[in-house]
Amino acid sequence: MTIRNYLPNDEQGVRQLLLSNIPNGYFVLDDMQMLDDWITAQNKGIPAYPPSMADYFFVLETDKIIGCAGFYVLETENRAHLTWGMVDADYHKKGLGKLLFDYRVNKVKELYPGFIITLGTSQYTFKFFEKLGMKVESITPNGFGNNYDRYFMRMTI
Q1: Are 64 and 57 a contacting pair, CB within 8 Å?
Q2: Rounded to two decimals, what is the model's pTM?
């Protein structure tokens, strides 16, 4: 198993990961457009969420993409925001989500010491992130639409 940075030919693999997570309720088909916007920005080397810098990583087993996750940095806020983390549904509960979380946290520590880490997640996954040390800061009912509440979480590293 290896972790590497995003490459432009990873587009289809990312989309397949999202699609694998729709039946279990972690994503909805409406998320595909936002993911496509993220991918387009990555391919063009521009910030997906200006004025931020972003990194995106993949976990591969042999040559198959089985997980991915990224973050973007808001330097004026001394904050790194974790985004678009997902694991192929066939690989859930095998430690890959924690691996990707730890990898991103360590990258933030290395590249942006002293920054806090935040993320937005739903009622379906916030407990996973709590186990990893994230704390719920606020909850916005239906904040992601489609009856998905938005849990804004924070971690000081």
Answers
A1: no
A2: 0.91
Domain that includes residue 35, residue range? 2-156
Conformation bin of residue 111: beta by default, left when phi > 0, alpha when psi is -120 to 50: alpha
The CATH number that applies at residue 114 is 3.40.630.30
How many residues does this entry show for the chain? 157
3-state secondary structure of 70: strand
- For 47-106, the pLDDT digits (tens) are 777 767 678 888 998 888 999 999 999 989 999 999 999 999 999 999 999 999 999 999
Signed CA dihedral, 92, 23, 140, 70: sign only: positive
Residue spans of alpha helices (H) in 21-152: 31-44, 96-111, 126-131
Contacts for 26 with CB less than 8 Å, ≥ 6 apart = 86, 122, 124, 125
Q: Is 124 helix (H, G, I), strand (E, B) or coil?
A: coil
Count structural domains, the chain.
1
